[in-house]
Amino acid sequence: MDSSTRKKWDFSAVFYDLMAWGPERRWAPRKRELFSSMHGKVLFVAVGTGQDIPFFPPGRDITGIDISPRMLAKARERAARYSGSLELREMDIHALEFADQSFDQVVTSCTFCSVPDPVAGLVALRRVLKPGGELSMFEHTGSRVFPFNLMLDVMTPIWKPIGPEMNRDTVTNVKKAGFEIRQVDNVYLDVVKIIIATSPE
Amino acid sequence: MMERRCYFLAGDVLSNAVMGAAAAWLAAALVDLSWSMSVGMFAGMLAGMGTGLLLIPVFVGLFGAMEVMLPVMLTAMLSGMVFGMVCAMQTPALPVLLIGGGTIGILVLLLTYAVNAVLHGKAS
Questions:
Q1: By CA distance, what is A23's nearest residue in B?
Q2: A104: part of which helix (H) or strand (E)?
Q3: Is the ipTM of this structure higher than 0.85?
Q4: Fold assignment, A3-198
Q5: What are the tens digits of pLDDT across the range A22-36?
Q6: Interface residue B3 vs chain A (CB under 8 A)
Q7: Which one of A28, A179, B8, B36 is most buried, counting C-beta atoms within 10 A?
């Protein structure tokens, strides 16, 4: 277990809901749309305090993981109100305790801005995803457009100690991990993106 | 889809206008006629960034993450730069600082809306 990452998110759990109030409401329509495609056995990575749980469609079979026990303690209150099967487990994405090809779909939401080794994390997700299974991501990434790329590069070292990195090339990381990209939609600028990829057959 | 909800549109305008005005005011409090224009501009930019780092968490919590953070930080830097440079040449009155800084904020916001309109949607 990566203790420094766990410590960072345990600390952030104190004020996370306060900071996420605006972003979650702003992104709600796009997240609901993305999550409506949840099917089969679903792994939801980095469930955090469970801010995304109200956007899950009812009646699905979902396993949510997070590295932070303090985040999960808050998520459990929201999970209790979900009308479907939702199991929450404390787990590091770099050491997933699931058998190979356990899930039909993996869903992430603002996850790969924070995973310490994003390509290794994505490779781990490919292992637990069935061949042909779908990876659905709602992520913020770096930008290729000036001056936003510069702003994100400047802000990353400032925010990193308590939160995410803001200049990651997640689409390239998904390709590096061996997924086949099916679709990339820009939600805001070329920074907030919906990425749909599949694990090769 | 482009943002159409009044709460978030009003939040965008408010956060950029307030940030622009605050950065201009802080730059004016820091830089005076004894400074050279280039040093004043650089100091104003740093002051703007500092103001941005203080205010951004409040605006983000209320109105959104990247949609707020990026234009507001750009506003803070630009407003600080412009008024750092101006204050090395003259002493603007408070209303000029507030209205000028607020206007820079609105212009930056419109720029980001325009860029977003070009980029949003299917990328690949």
A1: B64
A2: strand A103-109
A3: yes
A4: Rossmann fold (3.40.50)
A5: 999 999 999 999 999
A6: yes
A7: A179
